[in-house]
Amino acid sequence: MITTTTTTTMQLQGIHGPKPTPLTLNKNSSKISKKHHINNPSQKHVNRGGEYKSPVIVYLKSPEVVHVPPHEFMTTVQRLTGKPFSSSSHQDFFADSVWDKILGWCQAPREVFITVKEVIEMADSWPWTQSRREIFHAIVLATLWNIWKVRNDRVFSGKRKSPGDVVDEIKVPKEPKPVPAKKPFLEKPVPEKTAPENVQKNLWVGLLKTVVASALLCFALLCLLVESGEMAYRYHRYNRHLLLHLSSTTTVRSRGWLTFSAFFSTQPSPLLVRDFIHSALYDPQHGYFSQTPRAVGVLDTTIPFHNLRGRKAYLSHLDKIYKQNDVSWFTPVELFKPWYAHAIAEAILRTTNLSFPLKIYEIGGGSGTCAKGIMDYIMLNAPTRVYTNMSYTSIEISSSLAKKQMETVGEVTSHLSKFKVECRDAADSSGWGDAEQQPCWVIMLEVLDNLPHDLIYSENQVSPWMEVWVEKQQDRSGLSELYKPMQDPLIKSCLDILNVDKDYRPQETREASLPSNIWAKMFPKPRRCWLPTGCLKLLDALHGALPKMSLIASDFSYLPDVKIPGERAPLVSTKKDGSSSDHSTYLDAKGDADIFFPTDFWLLERIDHYSSGWLKSRIEHFDRSSKQGKKRRTITLDTSVFMEEFGLPTKTKTKDGYNPLLDDFKNTKFYLSVPTHNTK
After folding, report:
1. Do 492 and 505 meet the contact criterion of CB atoms below 8 Å apart?
2. What b/e readout covers 348-373, taking b as 16+ CB neighbours within 10 angstroms?
3. Rounded Cα gap, residues 402 and 424, in angstroms
4. What is the reported pLDDT for 50?
5. Helices and strands (H, E) in the chain, number of each type
6. HSE-up of residue 658 (Cα within 13 Å, Cβ side)
7. How far apart are CA 219 and CA 355, in angstroms?
8. CA distance 618 to 616
9. CA distances from 665 to 17, 33, 39, 560 (A)
10. Carries keyword Repressor (predicted)?
11. Is 282 helix (H, G, I), strand (E, B) or coil?
């Protein structure tokens, strides 16, 4: 099925100038069928129009064929939003609305990116009337102009004349008349009689003005699209070949592409992959978790596992709650509440020294379900003094989730005096202040999978590793990779820990054997490896601020059906209308897709030892035989083993004995790390 998405680069606005000019279709009205209505968030913005009965409102709400005067189409939308015509909010709404209608006409869901050119080619097979085809061509032209304008905005910045002014100077009138001999671009005509001494000077002046006029004319021809809503459509509305030519390199992208165009406009230099991923996920305005407030769902009630017959009934119930809540996914702590959080609380109570006040930090607390479940369990099962003296601090980077956590924990009034949220990045060591020498617990559930990673690349088996950077292509609308020699300290440290290349040493260079070199050149095999530099940065910050912390982390040990190449490669997924769509490259994640990585728990343990100082000293001094004791005692458990040890598995069992917590989460593990007596 033909599918596509919309884009805010399709800012379907009118001509630039003091008064926007609507698209003129040279028709009194056009029929627009509403048989195939697509429900989408843009309708909510339309409904803000209140009592104003515009043609757009009638069009959205009526299932019948309605008449929309084309000259009112853009102006009525502006009145509906009540915002300046050129505002970003209005452009977002208008682009979404118009392309929703186009895709509604052709019954095409908005899921996959396709080019404008492909849309035009597909339109040949659509049973459209001539009037509808004219509307479609006009909107395509306006779309192409706005995409072109965004790409070339810097060309116009700082110019004395706006593109509209330039066009006004050379615009051909509707009814061409004989052009007088006077040259319009010359300020003063050359005198017919000129003194001999001024002939050469006047010739040079005339030549210079002619060159300037020609350049201005060429520039103005490019700027004809400024008037695309009216002028270009007037002359080329039936020229399908022109549309195909204009759209050959233009892509209709999702809303995230415009935001990342804006991001790269302020960051013209290439970005490390980890910085690109961090912005794609956590940017306050353009990131996935900012644009998708319901990325992680919250269940109103506990799932009644004992009332479900078996696995089929459980999956049916799960499908039902996903459709009802319209969220990207539910975390295990949410699906199995409160039992999942209770198991973590039991593990803490069993292994902590209760002679000290219990202090818990949670990184990325989500909706607060885990915090509330742990505090509930401690209140009911631990000695009174433990609950009375405890403190629970959530470190949350999202302000909206921080607010949600306070609401969730606040359902029990006594919890509020012991709970607080710090809205900051836990990986930023400056936010922790001075090191805390008291024992504490740190909880990280489904945090490691969303931490930024770096990518390294080697063209064959013996070539040195290179850093991968992301850069915006100058002459195209996409992003590309750039390879640089290894120089980033964080990547070097992670590579030391992993020891991916056995010949790699920070201060040594070893040449591979001659047969290996020959084999690699004859049969080159490019290598790509993802490094959890975000995890290394986070654990460095935690060990520096909380040297006596105990750690509980849970995450996915592997992910199925990953399309992106490389060891420990991520899954990049977009979810819409209850269905997920996976991408084949991480460069597609521009604020509209989740990026999550599998956790290499063997590597996590090594990073933990490195950040604690034990493995770091061995690597830096090349002392593999050091007898210095480890500072951490670690263990990795399957989720089923952890729950059977600390939880109540019977609480999540169905009637026929099926237990989704034990049977369906075999690709998840728990990592526990506690300090030893070697920790000073």
Report:
1. no
2. bbeebeeeeebbbbbbbbbbbbbbbb
3. 10
4. 36
5. 27, 19
6. 16
7. 78
8. 5
9. 58, 47, 34, 12
10. no
11. helix
DSSP string, 191-205: PSS--HHHHHHHHHH
How crowded is the C-beta side of 149, counted as CA atoms within 13 Å?
A: 24
Burial class (CB in 10 A: 0-12, 13-18, 19+), 628: exposed
Residue 539: which of 492, 490, 574 has the closest Cα? 490
Give phi and psi for 43, each to the nearest 5.
-65, -30
Q: What is the DSSP secondary structure assignment for residue 249, as one 8-state letter?
A: T
- 3/315 Cα distance (integer angstroms): 28
Classify residue 385 by burial, with Cβ atoms within 10 Å: 0-12, 13-18, 19+.
exposed
In which element (H, E) is residue 134 found?
helix 130-151
Reference 491, options 270, 268, 273, 267; nearest CA is 273
Candidates 174, 101, 80; CA nearest to 143 is: 101
Distance between CA 382 and CA 350 in Å, rounded?
10
The CATH homologous superfamily for domain 305-449+536-558+631-675 is Vaccinia Virus protein VP39 (3.40.50.150)
CA angle 78, 84, 85 (to 5 degrees): 55
Q: Specify whether the CB–CB gap between 367 and 296 falls below 8 A.
A: yes
Q: What is the mean pLDDT of each run of 10 residues along the chain (680 residues)?
A: 35 34 34 35 35 36 39 44 41 52 54 55 65 67 60 48 48 47 46 49 57 52 40 38 47 38 57 93 82 71 93 91 77 94 95 93 94 97 96 92 93 95 93 91 96 93 90 77 94 84 42 56 81 96 95 94 92 77 87 90 94 74 58 92 93 94 93 79
- Cα 208 → chain centroid: 50
Count Cα neighbours of 670 within 13 Å in the Cβ-side half-sphere.
Answer: 22
| Pick from 546, 550, 552: nearest CA to 344 | 552
Residue ranges, comma separated, of all CATH 3.40.50.150 domains in the chain are: 305-449+536-558+631-675
Place of tokens 């930024």: 452
Give the three-class secondary structure for 505.
strand
Closest CA to 530 of 340, 325, 276, 255: 276
Within 8 A by CB and 6+ apart from 46, the residues are 56, 57, 60, 80, 93, 97
DSSP letters along 145-185, please? HHHHHHHTHHHHTT-SS-HHHHHHHHPPPSS--PPPSS-TT
Whole-number Å distance between alpha carbons of 502 and 400 = 45
- The span from the CA of 311 to the CA of 657, in Å, is 9
Q: What are phi and psi of 454, to 5 degrees?
A: -105, 160
Q: 569: phi > 0 → left, psi -120 to 50 → alpha, else beta; which? A: beta
pLDDT at 249: 40
Residue with tokens 């080159």: 524
Q: Is the CB of residue 319 less than 8 Å from the CB of residue 326? A: no
- Strands annotated E in 94-231: 114-115
At residue 481, the 3 state secondary structure works out as strand
Report pLDDT for 206.
57
Tell me which DSSP letter residue 329 carries: B
Distance CA(1)–CA(193), nearest Å, equals: 73
Q: Give the count of beta carbons closer than 10 Å to the beta carbon of residue 293.
A: 12
On the question of a cis peptide bond just before residue 338, with omega within 30 degrees of 0, the verdict is: yes
Quickly count: other Cβ atoms within 10 Å of residue 635's Cβ: 12
C-alpha to C-alpha distance for 419 and 423, rounded to whole angstroms: 13
Terminus-to-terminus CA distance in the chain, angstroms?
A: 63
Count the Cβ atoms, other than its own, within 10 Å of residue 282.
17
pLDDT in tens, 381-422: 999 999 999 999 999 988 888 999 999 999 999 999 999 999
